[in-house]
Amino acid sequence: MSSDDQAKDEFDLNIIYNYFLDTERQGPGSTEATRKALNFIAGLSEKSLIADLGCGTGGQTIVLAQNTTSKIIGVELWPVFIKQFNKNIQTQNFQDRVQGIVGNMDNLPFEKEELDLIWSEGAIYNIGFERGLNDWRKFLKQDGYIAVTEISWLGETRPTVINDFWQKSYSEINTIPIKITQMQKAGYLPIANFILPENCWSNYYAQQARMQESFLQKYAGNKFVEEFVAQQRYEATLFDQYKAYYGYVFYIGKRIK
Ligand code: SAH
Q1: Among residues 114, 122, 14, which one has the least CA distance to residue 58?
Q2: Which site among 77, 149, 192, 206 is 20 to 30 Å from 25 CA-CA?
């Protein structure tokens, strides 16, 4: 790849990140869903350490901070998101026990058995569900918990259009029983799972719809932006049509190995 290509790729990536910078969350989710998942986690105190992996600008991290007394570290690959994350944390006055750091979920800066809870909403797909569960387990204390959301098929069969779209976007997409088995095989006791309600997606797409118009105006004539927006819109249209067949699912487990 020439350095010109690289510069263009970075510029394009920047555009995508800016698109998501002002949304409260960068993936499907809600305060209610985060709180519901947190209710399955026992034993957190002010001595506990939570890691929120792929934390984005911290929509869910703030909910964790509001509903625990624990120390929280948000880890995020994109520095611009972490800057916004730390701003948001400061606005909420949680800076004494919540901190965002730039880091890679593929190479985490934690000690073995240091964490009481690993959280990751709409982000584990970046390294894959199975790999994430397997690689991250060592950082959890024995009896520590993990809570992640992952796109999943809600039944055994589905129309080809939606099957092919998601297989192509994320080949690890699978049914809930298979995901639970993967969790168990990775050394966790599956504690609970629930499907995120539809409003978690509609909020996500509605936030984006607001961005899209101004984005298209700001970058008028930019083919990359036009294609990106068209893709996001297509994904939203598919969701409207095929939401009965797939969803985001919270998977909560406890380290037992
Ligand atoms: N948890 C947030 C953000 C979800 S979007 C929310 O639910 O709103 C996924 C996030 O993962 C993005 O912010 C992206 O920059 C981040 N990410 C992607 N690959 C990563 C990696 N290897 N390590 C850490 N973060 C990563």
Answers
A1: 122
A2: 192
For ligand 1, atom 16, which residue shows the shortest CA distance?
54
Residues 6+ apart with CB under 8 A from 45: 69, 70
Residue 147 burial (CB count, 10 A)? 25
Is residue 38 in some structural domain? yes
Q: Is 29 in the pocket of ligand 1 (CB under 6 A)?
A: yes
- Tokens describing residue 88: 């948001």
Q: Closest ligand 1 atom to the C-alpha of 29? A: 7
| Integer CA distances (angstroms), 11 to 15, 133, 213, in order | 6, 32, 20
Give the ligand 1 atom nearest the CA of 52.
Answer: 1
- With respect to residue 35, please indicate whether it lies within any of the assigned structural domains: yes
Of the residues 77, 131, 151, which should be mutated to test ligand 1's pocket, given the most ligand atoms within 8 Å of the CB?
A: 77
- How far apart CA 222 and CA 87 sit, in angstroms, is 30
Instruction: Evaluate whether residue 10 is within a structural domain.
Output: no
Q: Which pLDDT tens digit goes with each residue over 58-106?
A: 999 999 999 999 999 999 999 999 999 999 999 999 999 999 999 999 9
Please count the structural domains in the chain. Answer: 1
DSSP, collapsed to helix, strand or coil, labels residue 156 as coil
Q: 130 is in which domain, residue-wise?
A: 23-197+246-255
**Shortest-distance atom of ligand 1 to CA 28:** 7
pTM over 0.70, yes/no: yes
